[in-house]
Predict the 3D structure of the following.
Amino acid sequence: MPAGLKLIFVIIISYFAFISVYGLAASILLILIASIAARVPPHSLLKGSKPLVIISLCVILLKTIRLEGEGIATPVLHIPYISKEGFRAGLLAAPGLFVPFAAVSLLFSVTTMRELRLSLASVENSLVRFFSHAPRVAARKLFKQTANMPLESQGIKLKQTANMPSAKEKRHTPFFSLGISLMLGFIPRFFEMWDDANLACDSRYCKRGLRRLFLLIPLVAERMMEASANTALALEARAFGAD
C-alpha cells in the first residue's frame, strides 16, 4: 500500500475516534486488525505513551470541574462544581487521545520516512502541475489572439509574456511535503527521547511525580531543539531553501 494511503487511513481513524463511542470502538478495532495484518504486536503501539496518561487525566479533570456543575451530594457532605456529564465526556475523550498515537505508531512501523516523503512529494507535484496549467493555457490563447494583430501591438503583447519562465526553468521543490514529513517524523522521536530521559531518571533513582515531570520537560525540549537544529543544518548542507 502506498504511504499516502496509509497516511489518509491514519487521518480517517483519528477523526472517527472523536465523533462518538461507536467511532472510537470502530477505530480501535481497525487498528487491531491492521496491526495483526502487519504482524506488529498491538501492545507495542502504545510504547512511550506515558505522557498521554497525564494529558488524559488533565482532560478528565478539566471536563469534570465546572462552575455550573450540579455537584455530588452524599449523606455526609456535598461536593460542588462537579459535572457528571463532563466526567462522562472526559472518560470518552481520554481514550480517543491514544487512538491517533497508536495509528501513527503503526504507520511508522510499516512505513519509512523516505516512502512517506516521496508519496507526499508526488501529491504536491501533481497539485502544482494542475494549478500551473492555467497560466500556460492563458499564454497560448494570448499568442492566438496576437496572430492577426498589427506588428506594433503584437510586439507589445509579446513583450509582456517574454519574461514568463519556461517549464524547464520553473522547477518546483516540494517543500510542503518535506515539512509535513519532518513534522510527522518528530512525533515518534519526541516519545523516544521521553523514554530515554525517563529511563535515565530511573537509573539515578529519581522519585516519580510532578517533580520528575518538571525535570523531564525542559530536558526533552532541549534535545528536541538540538535535533531540529541538526535537521536544519542537514537541509542547508543539501541546498534546501537556497535561491
The two ends are 36 Å apart (CA to CA). The beta strands are 72-73, 78-79. The first helix runs from residue 3 to 16. The longest strand covers residues 72-73.
